[in-house]
Amino acid sequence: MPQANDTARPELTTLQQRVVREIVALVRRDNRLAGDHLPEVHIAQRIGTSRSPVQSALRHLAQLGVLQQDVNRGFFLSVDAKDWDGPVAGLLSTDDPLYLRIADDRQAGTLPDELSEAELMRRYDVARSTLRKVLSRISEEGWIEQSMGHGWRFLSMIDSPDAYEESYLFRQSIEPGALLGPSFVAVAAQLRQLRREQQRIVDGGFETMTPIELFESNSHFHETLAEWGHNRFVLQSVRRINQLRRLVEYRQAAQRRARHTQAAEHLAILDAIEQQDLVQAASLMRAHLDGARRAKLRDPQVFSHAA
After folding, report:
1. How far apart are alpha carbons 221 and 219 in whole angstroms?
2. Is the separation of the CB atoms in 153 and 116 below 8 Å?
3. What is the pLDDT of residues 243-284, one digit of tens each?
4. CB within 8 A of 246, min separation 6: which ones?
5. Tens of pLDDT, residues 218-236
6. How far out from the chain centre does Cα 179 lie?
7. C-alpha pair distances (Å), 164 with each of 132, 199, 301
8. 108-116: long-range contacts (C-beta < 8 A, 24 or more apart)?
9. Which H/E stretch holds residue 68?
10. In whole angstroms, what is the distance from residue 303 CA to residue 305 CA?
């Protein structure tokens, strides 16, 4: 394939960094092979963002050597997804330390609802530019907003067992119902893709995939089924809750056997949908969410915090 010019790229923005991580997770979930095409429009739709940050992220991955860019046809894998671990290790190993510290402190109740950038800079001993990148990401995820001047205000998030349970009870009221709605239509190609993703987890991915990848696979399953319901309010709600529960779910990365169970239940739901037994699919979804709610609320580590 003809190669695009390899020119130096500016530092990625917070949004572009997130998109890079999500593309890596998507490619690994799909177990893509060298030579596979990554169409920008398709990637943007899968991730839920515009093409511009996707283009920047794909160029970054090309610089890391895992993609090739054809100036006429776009981006292609130059390395099998299973061999991406080394080149993208920095993207898979952990999340931004400052982001995690702020999230931990907020969930622990040690950060007030409102505070200034200067206060945050002193507390975490970071430069304003570093802090603003993280605050921009947190703002995109919907749990902080900028107030007058250089102040910031934290918004509601899932920061207690009660809030976590409420989120699951709400999901139990809308996700099974979406499967029974008059506009529900499963997309065959997407169903096959979901089946491959969940089967990979069942077949051993629950032991080797990163917390980010496991969370994104779970979110992709539930958001795709919400899309099939063609109810914008259900889809917006499911996406919003996934944003809010991201931090709590990362804490449960050690509970890998539970991820196996969840993926197996996802496959059973997909079986029922494929057989057009939507009543059974809705019943399985309700039981799936209720089981997850009960198991996670019994876990004492979910809302524990380091001293």
Report:
1. 5
2. no
3. 778 767 766 655 677 889 999 999 999 999 999 999 999 999
4. 141, 215
5. 998 999 999 999 999 999 9
6. 22
7. 28, 27, 13
8. 108/305, 109/159, 111/154, 112/154, 113/153, 113/154, 114/147, 114/151, 114/152, 114/153, 114/154, 115/151, 115/152, 116/149, 116/150, 116/151, 116/152
9. strand 67-70
10. 6
Contact 95, 22 (CB under 8 A): no
Q: Please give the radius of gyration of the chain, using alpha carbons only, rounded to the nearest integer.
A: 20
Three-state DSSP class for 293? helix
Question: What phi and psi values does residue 274 have, to the nearest 5 degrees?
Answer: -65, -35
| Unique residue bearing structure tokens 């996802």 | 266
Round to whole Å and give the CA distance between 62 and 53.
14
Model-level pTM greater than 0.90?
no
Q: Which of 97, 96, 81 is nearest to 24 (CA)?
A: 81
How would DSSP label each residue in 81-120? Answer: GGG-TTTTHHHHS---HHHHHHHHHHHHT-S-SEEEHHHH
Question: How many CB atoms within 10 Å of residue 113?
Answer: 9
3-state secondary structure of 185: coil
Please check whether residue 234 is in contact with residue 226, taking contact to mean a CB–CB distance below 8 angstroms.
yes
